Amino acid sequence: MAEIKFNDIIKPENLVYKRSKVLTDNVMHYCPGCGHGTVHNVLAEVIEEEGLQSRTIGITPVGCSVLMYNYLDIDFQEAAHGRAPALATAVKRLMPDKFVFSYQGDGDLAAIGTAETIHTCNRGENILMLFINNGIYGMTGGQMAPTTLEGMKSSTSPYGRDVAMMGAPIKMADIVAMLPGTCFVTRHSVNTASGVKKLKRALKKAVQYQNEKRGTCFIEVVSNCPSGWKMTPVESNKWMEENMIPFYPLGDIKVPAE
Amino acid sequence: MKGNEAIAEAAIRAGADGYFGYPITPQSEILEYLMEANPQARTGMVVLQAESEVAAINMVYGGAACGKKVLTSSSSPGISLKQEGITYIAGAELPCLIVNVVRGGPGLGTIQPAQSDYFQAVKGGGHGDYHLIVLAPSSVQEMADFVELGFDLAFKYRNPVMILSDGAIGQMMEKVYLKPQKERSTEILPWATTGKPETRERNIITSLDLDAARQEKFNLKLVAKYNEIKQKEVRFEEFLTDDAEYILVAYGTSARICQKAIKLARAEGIKVGLLRPITLFPYPSRRLNEMALKVRGMLAVEMSTGQMVEDVMLAVNGKTRVAHFGRMGGIIPTPEEVVENLKKFIKG
Is residue B167 classed as helix, strand or coil in its secondary structure? Predict the structure, then answer.
């Protein structure tokens, strides 16, 4: 095989990967190594490939991804902390032919918004709930989240999470999978290329199920927080693989009957 | 029909797209009526019982952000829970209708009628510099009429509107003329999040701006809007004020009591009239200020410890005597009590 020079690589005919048209030109504010950017990218690709741009409404949370609306070229609503599923419920009920997703972190979805999460899933709203679980409050500077692992240090659990005092980490995907309203509950990560591909496949399934009005799709992405965990991006991915994923195992938790 | 039922039927007929609520006395009939009337079949209107008042107001936020005609209703403790959503809606400049059928407080308080949520409705309620447009019905007819008026004002100014009623008007039965059914709007509003076509930029509904200078500019834009509302939307009603030496100032249920009290007082030779604010924000301050020079005093009659009376004082700015008479805890004053307290006020 002939050697490919740099100037040849960037020629359009040699492009293997390209930037989704659904991504805007804004520079993302996320820390180096953070999973949010990758999830945004995959979601943008799916919206583009499925032809959903003109009928998608996204609901952003409070947390690191509060400014997500700057990065995807679609209509967005910015919710109060924890309330994204309530907004999404109304949007979908009032405009059933739109593609509606909420995007939330662990503090948003699993602490302050628990009631909205549970009841939206229980009603089986035809929306996609995307849940980014990095076990910490990133935006406010690394406080303990409901999903913080036992013994894990944070700025509000400086000696490690003491389960007897602070409660145990909560597995939201497993909880919502028990509700009859959810049709598809699955857990992924974006620390590997194959993980990214699997997430993309799951997102495409969620689009299909929403089109078929089968109920709530809940996709959890176990992610890292290099800044909050006080690690380099590489260290944080390794720590995630060794600690987070064993507690939050990847794979489908609930799939609809085909 | 009941005041609460009038609100519900008027919402369907006004062409509302959605109602999101949670049960609380004394306004549960609104949700019950809407569920039974099945507006989904009649007009396609969505009615949903939410898991909490917090969820309900955030459903209203989501629906309003799509440019839809949406409303919620509750009573005092529930309205407190909705304040988070209300300030976001005001901050995102979205139209919607919020009905508060007030009961006595603070806390869980009582289920009887009161007017003790005036400050919360008129002065803010949630955090940040914002105002609701506040309408105060004093009859079942006005409960019905103010639904459509409220939606019109909400969309005209892209601002949340509150109907500040109370348990008495909510539960009271009166004859009411209902307008014919209006078609639900199919118009796609240019600012609404309805999915981004290639022909426009994406629409983002948010109340967040991390840039201080831009946020201040936005605050000033809101001030300009509120000033325009103060110029154009003040509504009030006067009763026997032409020759009045004393003015009772009262809204809602209290205004009805005051009308009877005025008849009793006039039979005794006391020249007294009523100014009934219909909009509580914007407040009829200018009219009260004009009247202040011609009268000997103004008595604010409220079912509270004295909230609206502060706006009367601000309006007259020392030009005449102002005092307050009120009953609380769910007690509605009698016309005789009002006359008795008016006489005390006249004696000074």
Answer: helix
